[in-house]
Specification:
- It comes from Gossypium arboreum.
- It catalyses: [(1->4)-alpha-D-galacturonosyl methyl ester](n) + n H2O = [(1->4)-alpha-D-galacturonosyl](n) + n methanol + n H(+).
- Pathway: Glycan metabolism; pectin degradation; 2-dehydro-3-deoxy-D-gluconate from pectin: step 1/5.
- Belongs to the pectinesterase family.
- It contains 6 helices and 31 strands.
- It is mainly beta.
- The protein has 2 domains: 271 residues, Single-stranded right-handed beta-helix, Pectin lyase-like (Pectate Lyase C-like, 3 Solenoid), CATH 2.160.20; 90 residues.
- Strands 5-6-9-12-15-18-21-24-27-30-31 form an 11-stranded parallel beta sheet. Strands 7-10-13-16-19-22-25-28 form an 8-stranded parallel beta sheet, with no helix packed on it.
């Protein structure tokens, strides 16, 4: 299972079997023999209960009809020149004079590695830097520091590059990338065998048309507001985890069977909210869940108060009839926020779901069906394009 070690300031990520670390300044806790992050929350809260579960709705909801989603998105998320006044001024200033850096393994670019291209970006960067990546496999430990915001990694959608990635910078964009952890499948014996393919810890990060592939712990979707559109995510156990606020739109989740894993714990999501006062959670809209595993749980209560909602999601019959797990801690059934809204497929079976699962009414679902769930109206722009 996941092993997480807390360090005071740094994060390191390896694309080979090894320990992986998550940056934290939080209190350490021990649960089920695993050291994990914990929060100490001090707050005086006086508000109606709906505010604990929902952001403010200010944008048009995602259409019920999946065929209308692309036109809806393009109608809202327009180029900078059409949307500048509604975006954060810092972002507008950064986008006015973008710099393009080309990376090509066989020559013809400014650099032959992604790492060298990132190193060329100065600390405190205040302008959009688009790193255009040529085809091929880039076996690098790619890291973008917090002091280098406004970086975009983009590949050719017809010949997508393969790479590993770890990013903490704000205003990051990734498009047309295969982000793959090439470590062998964990066998249940090797210590620290599971490692992430992608960790996202910077605020306001977007991924378009990316494939994120691994086994256990594929995607550490951690801290800040994140947006995934038209992506493909594959893994075995807890392979989307973290404590941020993310919207996944029109993305496919593939659950790979894990012969050496716990047959009762084939799980997609381990969202890490620890209190209802934390405004974090995952929203999956117009996605699909498929794979080769059996009796898959949509999520489990890794922490005490996770919040996850699936809307308009097509679920194959691989989903466990109960749908969700309290992580063998019955008391967490009273603190989780697990919701489903108008999902379809053989795996979408409301009648057999656990009692703590919410089948959402229209009004309850609406806060999870808008781009402003991740404050998207302030920072989202269309996927980048690079001129030939």
């Amino acid at each position: 299972m996941r092993k997480i070690t807390c360090l005071p300031e740094t994060f390191q990520f390896n694309s080979i079997p090894n320990k992986h670390y998550i940056e934290t300044r939080k209190k350490k806790k021990e649960i089920d023999g695993k050291r994990i992050e914990g929060n100490e929350v001090y707050a005086l809260v006086i508000c109606v209960s709906i505010l604990l579960f929902a952001p403010i709705v200010v944008s048009q909801p995602i259409p019920t009809d999946k065929s209308q989603v692309e036109a809806w998105f393009n109608g809202i998320i327009k180029p900078l020149k059409e949307k500048g006044k509604t975006l954060d001024p810092e972002l507008v200033q950064a986008e006015t004079e973008p710099r393009i850096i080309k990376v090509m393994q066989g020559g013809g670019g400014e650099f032959h590695t992604i790492t060298k291209a990132i190193e060329s970006v100065p600390s405190g960067n205040a302008k959009r830097v688009i790193i255009s990546i040529g085809p091929g496999s880039y076996k690098e430990k790619i890291r973008i520091e917090r002091n280098k915001p406004f970086i975009t990694l983009v590949g050719d959608p017809k010949n997508m590059p393969n790479l590993t990635f770890d990013g903490t910078a704000n205003y990051f964009v990734g498009a047309n990338l295969n982000i793959v952890n090439t470590a062998p499948r964990p066998d249940g014996k090797m210590v620290g065998a599971q490692t992430v393919a992608l960790r996202v810890s910077g605020d306001r990060s977007a991924f378009y048309n990316c494939k994120i592939i691994g086994f256990q712990d594929t995607l550490c979707d951690d801290r800040g507001n994140h947006f995934f559109k038209d992506c493909y995510i594959r893994g075995t156990v807890d392979f989307i985890f973290g404590s941020e606020t993310s919207l996944y739109l029109n993305s496919e989740i593939f659950v790979e069977g894990d012969p050496g894993g716990d047959p009762e714990m084939a799980v997609i999501i381990a969202q890490a909210r620890e209190s209802s006062s934390e405004d974090t959670g995952y929203s999956f809209v117009h996605g699909r869940i498929t794979g080769t595993a059996k009796d898959v749980f949509l999520g489990r209560a890794w922490k005490s108060s996770p919040r996850v909602v699936y809307s308009y999601t097509k679920m194959d019959e691989i989903i466990h009839p109960g749908g969700w797990s309290s992580n063998r801690q019955p008391e967490r059934a009273d603190t989780v926020y697990y919701g489903e809204y108008k999902c379809t497929g053989k795996g979408a079976t409301p009648a057999t779901r656990e009692k703590f699962v919410k089948q959402l009414f229209d009004a309850e679902a609406q806060p999870f069906l808008v781009l402003d769930y991740v404050e998207g109206s302030k920072w989202l722009l269309p996927p980048p394009t690079v001129p030939n």
